[in-house]
Specification:
Blueprint lengths: L5 H7 L8 E2 L1 H7 L10 E5 L3 H15 L3 E5 L2 H11 L7 E4 L2 H9 L8 H4 L14 E13 L24 E3 L4 H14 L1 H14 L1 E2 L3 H10 L4 E5 H11 L6 E4 L10 E8 L6 H11 L2 H8 L5 E2 L23 H4 L3 H9 L4
Helix pairs in contact: 3-12, 4-5, 7-8, 7-14
């Protein structure tokens, strides 16, 4: 299976202005006004590369169907799909974050998924209209340096980090899609004014990093004691360094606080797909037992299909006690971007 190294994760997690990468087959498809239905499946991928490559290998081995991939950030690719509309060469979209899928669904660009596919995961992790499905989940966590922080002293809410008591002690990444979903969770649970005050407090007292992974590495190196991040960045680092030698650790706030937010990665089929039947098979395979095992062997995310377990030493999903906010409630996260601009963080 594909190794989960920090370098591979960082390579697969390029955000913002990174150039889109595509296979020759997909580039050739994009140059034609229409593509024959017997060509390879065309996947626009915003998820990290290791789990996508692992799933494609398993899918092709099981079905004989080839998959051509265009890589980019989820937001980039969603915007491109909106621009391409019915002329897109893409058959399906795999997004690292649910807001990009939600935005495409709102534009009417996604096709309904098969009922048996939707039944594979709990309903709260998929679109209400059945046009996209969550495949795996990750959790927002607090990463801390073990030499600098006693976890027993960490606050009961992520909101408390935006205070003078944590001046220059907390790393965060405003450009992170997961952080933006966390903003949405704060707004949903605590109100817009509280969310804005939290961001202004982080701007005043926290330290901005360009990505969650950079924030985690800063904690590991001792540059800063605490970071707000996703669980899998720390898991990747711990596997690379060795858990006996890693200088940082994860803290889960729990008790329904937005500091412990579940976000999902998932997929959908384009209404304009030339290979619609094969695309539906791919998404169905993504949430099958075989597909889920392939994905979670390559990245420290939680499988959403009941009965599948991760090989990584994750906090059991049932023990997280996360914020009671679903991907559908997070929507397209546009309100978070507005708050970031108002807080002068974007």
């Amino acid at each position: 299976m594909y190794p989960l190294s920090r370098r591979a994760l960082l390579k697969g997690a390029a955000l913002g202005g990174a150039a889109l990468a595509a296979t020759p087959a997909l580039l050739a498809a994009a140059s034609r006004p229409a593509r024959a239905a017997d060509g390879p499946l065309a996947l626009y991928n915003g998820q990290h590369r290791p789990p996508v490559e692992a799933l494609i290998a398993a899918f092709t081995a099981a079905t004989g169907i080839e998959v051509a991939v265009r890589h980019g950030s989820s937001a980039q690719l969603a915007s491109q799909l909106m621009e391409e509309g019915a002329h897109s060469p893409a058959d399906l979209f795999w997004s690292e974050e649910s807001p990009s899928l939600f935005a495409l669904a709102e534009k009417g660009l996604l096709a309904p998924l098969a009922a048996e596919t939707l039944a594979s995961v709990p309903a709260e992790y998929s679109a209400k209209d059945g046009t996209w499905i969550g495949a795996t989940a990750r959790c927002r966590v607090v990463v801390y340096n073990k030499a600098d922080v006693d976890p027993a002293t960490l606050p009961a809410s992520v909101l408390d980090f935006a205070s003078e008591a944590y001046a220059d002690k907390v790393a965060f990444a405003p450009a992170s899609g997961a952080f933006q979903q966390q903003i949405m969770a704060v707004m949903i649970l605590k109100g817009r004014e509280t969310a804005l005050a939290w961001l202004k407090g982080l701007r005043q007292y926290g330290r901005v990093y360009n990505s969650d992974s950079a924030a985690v590495e800063a904690v590991e190196s001792g540059d800063i004691p605490i970071a707000l991040s996703n669980n899998y960045y720390w898991q990747a680092l711990a596997r690379e360094i060795g858990e006996a030698d890693v200088q940082s650790a994860i803290h889960n706030i729990g008790h329904g606080d937005p500091g412990t937010l579940i976000t999902v990665s998932g997929g959908g089929v384009l209404k304009s797909a030339k290979n619609a039947e094969a695309a539906q098979r791919f998404v169905g395979f993504m949430v099958s037992e075989e597909g889920q095992k392939a994905i979670v062997a390559a990245i420290a995310e939680y499988p959403l299909r009941p009965g599948v377990t991760s090989p990584f030493p994750l906090t059991p999903f049932g023990e997280l006690d996360p914020a009671p906010v679903t991907p559908n409630q997070l929507g397209d996260a546009e309100a978070a971007l507005a708050l970031l601009r108002e807080a002068e963080l974007a």
